[in-house]
Predict the 3D structure of the following.
Amino acid sequence: MAATATPALRIEGLSKVFEGQRALAEVEFEVVPGEIHALLGQNGSGKSTLIKVLAGYHRPEAGASATLYGEPLALDGTPPPATAPIRFVHQDLGLIGGLGAVDNLALTGGYRGHWWLGDRREAATTRAYLRRYGLEIDVDAPVGTLSVATQAMLAILRAIKDVPADRLLLVVDEATAALPDEEIRIVFELLRELRARGGSVVYVTHRLNEVIEIADRVTVLRDGRKIATRPVAGLAHDDLAELIIGRPLEAFYSSGSAPREDVVLEVEDIAGGRCRGVSLQVHRGEVVGVTGIVGSGYESLLRLIFGGEERQAGVVKVAGEVVAPAHPWTSIAAGIAFAPGDRKRLSAVQDWSIAENITLPRLATGSGPLPWLGDRGERRDAQQWIDRLAIEPRDPAAPLSSLSGGNQQRVVIARWLRCGFKVLMLEDPTQGVDVGAKPAIYEALAAATAEGAGVLMSTSDVEEAAAVCDRVIVLVDGRVGAVLEAAEATADRIMATALSAKADDLIGADR
């Protein structure tokens, strides 16, 4: 790490308030040239707000100031000028999968040719640039066919293409969250190369083992305030977790849970994506939460169970019966209902009416010689669910796209309640839902469990998991790190488990 009197980035007095809620409070943050500086904190700590202020997405409160290599950086709610040596790479890499590396790099930096474009010259220029950083690929191949690590490297190299390495500040915001460990190390080699050339990196992550491996210093935010900036050398995994949470970890470790009867959903050693052998059970009448830090595997577990993502191994049983093959239709037939987190793309048809969305999975009424559902019957059937879940507007013919996020989620839950499922699985059930709409969703879940169904919900909101769930399963590095009963599943304890569990501590959740 180079020593210099001029920081690569210096932020002073950074505050931001949203509708009376303080997201950042007088934060000071400094990055020196030639270092990888990790930025850590729980959800809601202010990390994302700080990055969005730097990117010009948010305007901070009066009094904030920033410099890049000694030059003022305007924090006025507009993106930094193209000449400013700051670049961003986010979790959504922003690549176009159908285009090759040549065209993806040109999206931000343009082509080499000015009057005409020569395919050979553009390809040769791109190959030469990527080769400088050790990346050898077919530059004409669609980037969607490349490994996720290669795509991440390509996004980084696109971001820094027009910035001298020794004047670079690169912000990597959860861009490695979806990468398996072996591919993260490939990206790390690129970040180390940038550091060796004098560049600086702000590395935002939830994965503490990555911080210990790659970072020189770390800054921790909590509740919008800077808690500490420390050299990483000498810090252990648990030291970082304690800084993030603010309490000694010994108070949070799980003591396990007692077995129950009446298993409605049983998952045995399911593997795929980042999950590496997850087992769990859901009982009739209970809500089980699954959570963890980004990249722990909780994000894809429900899709693996439902058959919406390719499963490498594992068995799923509903009421003791094996669900096979692993496919959405067999899951639905077995009594599993699933509401993905991406409502607009995967959970509903935006152009259809409320009634059409509610009746979509089961059109037949199951009675009479012609058991299909006519228009009047569909409206009448949907109306009772609209009234039951207090969906607004109360008009079955209203297009789903006209509803708020909370009401759209209620439509999705009404759809599956109507089908009489045995298991309801939801991804981030209140994501994008305003506070006032959440109680109705929770009431819908309570209604499902009261009728004997089991609910399995994955959530990134540990406070929601603590408040709503009878048990919380915490995933760590693709395995079960702990199973916490409701009485011990506080938000702090859930986060402590997610941050501090080690690979050799992981357990099978066979209860």
